[in-house]
Amino acid sequence: MKLKYILLYIIGLGLLVFGNRNFWDELQESRKKEKLEDEKKHVNDGIAKRFETQRLEYDAATGKWKNPNYYFKVINLGNFNFKTLNKGKTTVETNDDENASDSQ
Length: 104
Known about the structure:
Layout: H1 2-19, H2 21-50, E1 57-59, E2 64-66
Antiparallel strand pairs: 1-2
């Protein structure tokens, strides 16, 4: 008799889970959402690995922020022709109308 009750209990539990259409749909939607979140997490982890982050420290004695790590600054000069530099001449360019050069 105990086998009969156990079998009926399993059938009832199965009907409760699989017979409830809303529960089954919610279960499938939650699995899809978890899968999308995992994919987004892997993509975000890949993006985060491409960037380097550094910690700045505040020096209270000088009142300035300092970067304790070694770093390099990139300076873009564009198309710069080193052969056409004036050797020995130094000119100062200003924004004043009187002192501005004629070059455009």
